[in-house]
Amino acid sequence: MTLLKKFQLPILIALLFIPFQLFAAEASGGHEPVDMTSSSVGFMAIVFFLIAYVFVMAEEFTHLRKSKPVILAAGLIWGMIGWVYMDHGMSELAEHAVRHNLLEYAELMLFLLVAMTYINGMEERQVFDALRSWLIRKGFSFRQLFWLTGILAFFISPIADNLTTALLMCAVVLAVGGTNSRFVSIACINIVVAANAGGAFSPFGDITTLMVWQKGMVDFGGFFALFIPSMVNFIVPAVIMHFAIPNENPAESDEIVPMKRGAKRIIALFLITIVTAVSFHNFLGLPPVIGMLTGLSYLQFLGYYLKKTKHKCISHEQFSDKNEVGEFVPFDVFTPVAKAEWDTLFFFYGVVLCVGGLGFLGYLSMASELMYNQWGATSANIAVGFLSAIVDNIPVMFAVLTMNPDMSTGQWLLVTLTAGVGGSLLSIGSAAGVALMGQARGQYTFFGHLKWAPAIAAGYAASIVTHMWINSALF
Length: 475
Description:
This protein has helices spanning 40-57, 59-62, 67-87, 91-124, 127-138, 142-156, 162-177, 181-199, 207-214, 227-242, 263-282, 288-308, 311-315, 334-338, 342-361, 363-375, 377-390, 393-403, 409-421, 431-439, 446-450, 453-470.
């Protein structure tokens, strides 16, 4: 969060459960996509994408919002694709592909918008301010908070998703140690690693695990074999970073911040909304975003109820529902909607369309075939993790599933693990990392994360070794 202002969310992702059948190789009118991997258009698309990502990584220095370069790159890439397909008389195929990508983005964007609205609503009701004051009064040290937020992120992300979990935990970190940049930076890194690791052992904890499950490569219970490797992935870098955390306590305070009326009900409705999204997907076969939007209606009705019963605020002094001039203000659901981080949401658009265009050009399939035919399954699956830190695990995993290499259950679990936790290697490698760069702007940065890449890589390697050891019977 900065708390959601704070909410400049991540790179693509994560939000749980969005079936990403991306890049459309579905033929339209009997035509097949044109392979342009060796063409000038293909090379130019790669150049545009790389230049855009350089600007994304340099946002800290240029102060150019990250959505701008990727949106431009997306337009240029698909403009070139459209021109080529129009010239070949197959414009409907390119149109079908880009519409499919746009639909995937719309599902992701609306899912994120609902989550951001709830988090912003909690912030407006002073949930995080109250939590901050409670944590300070409890006397937790920075090191204790470092472990507390990391452990909570690890165990919450398999139930919710890594993005939402990271945002929630970051809100706590910013609320308690917001003025200590060193603590905030390292704690955010720990949260990103923990949230990504926690999502790797749950069938619906991350989009990549969901994709593997839906394809039937691993059954529902099979993913839990990754629990210990995922925990190792979190614990190893956390132990290393622990010693860099300031061995001190936040400034003492006896301040008590009361939550505004309806705060606890918003928290409860958010949890119910997550359950609704999971249920719509698991039991009704519908996109999870439908469940999330249904959950938004819960918040709207609560806002209506609070407005109609605002007289209760006047008779209960424990609720601090007053504005600067002392007037009682009911909860307005459209206020947190307006405060959503639109730069991040448009950034997602640019990334989804850019990567979708590269996949449509044939680069992802080409890379996947090269890796599995020449390198071998184990080397290729380990490389997937490094690749997902740069590109994003969703299209990478989609390419692997499309290639459908003949692999054992152990290898499918390996690629699920590496694709899930590999994004932790860079701050831009996962939705959680991208989101926290916006939420803790200026404190959690790309280069701040990169400084601890060796420790994170040690956890990455240790988790792979652990998996191949304890799950050797699956290979």
